[in-house]
Write a structure and sequence with these properties.
The radius of gyration is 21 Å and the shape is elongated. By secondary structure, it is of the alpha+beta class. Strand 1 and strand 2 form a beta hairpin. The protein has a five-stranded mixed sheet with strand order 2-1-5-3-4, with helices on one face. Helix content is 25%, strand content 27%. The chain has a domain of 73 residues: Beta-grasp domain (Ubiquitin-like (UB roll), Roll), CATH 3.10.20.30.
C-alpha cells in the first residue's frame, strides 16, 4: 500500500511490521523531511492495524538497529517495528536441548571417548 506521492519536501520511508510469525506487512510512506520515527509510526499504525496499546509495546529499529522514538528518518530508511519476545531465547534453547537429549543434540551428537554428555 502506498500513500500519496512524494513532494519536494517529502521523503519515502518503508515501514515493516510482523503481527504474527511469517506474516510480514510492508508499507511505503511519504513523510515530511525531518520526520521523527514516532510521527511515522503514528501515520502507519492505522494502515497496519496496530492499536495504541500495541504501539506502546513495540520496539523500533531502522535497518536492524534499535533507535529511539525521536530518531529522525532519512530518505529510503526502512523502519522496523519489533514485537516483544514471548519466550526468552535462552530458556527456549535449554528446553529444546532437554527435549532432544544430549545424544542427538547438534554439536554434542559425537563425543570423544570418555567425554561427558553435553560437553
Amino acid at each position: 500500500m502506498v500513500s500519496e506521492p512524494a513532494g519536494p519536501a517529502q521523503i519515502a520511508v518503508t515501514v515493516v511490521f510482523s503481527a504474527a510469525p511469517r506474516a510480514v506487512q510492508e508499507l511505503v510512506l511519504h513523510v515530511p523531511f525531518g520526520c521523527p520515527v514516532e510521527q511515522a509510526l503514528a501515520l502507519a499504525a492505522p494502515q497496519l492495524g496496530i492499536s495504541p496499546q500495541q504501539r506502546q509495546a513495540l520496539d523500533l529499529g531502522v535497518w536492524g538497529k534499535r533507535v529511539p522514538a525521536a530518531h529522525i528518518l532519512c530518505n529510503g530508511d526502512r523502519l522496523e517495528l519489533y514485537r516483544p519476545l514471548t519466550v526468552d531465547p535462552k530458556v527456549a534453547r535449554r528446553e529444546r536441548f532437554v527435549r532432544q537429549g544430549a545424544k542427538s543434540a547438534g554439536l554434542f551428537a559425537t563425543r570423544r571417548a570418555g567425554g561427558k554428555a553435553g560437553y
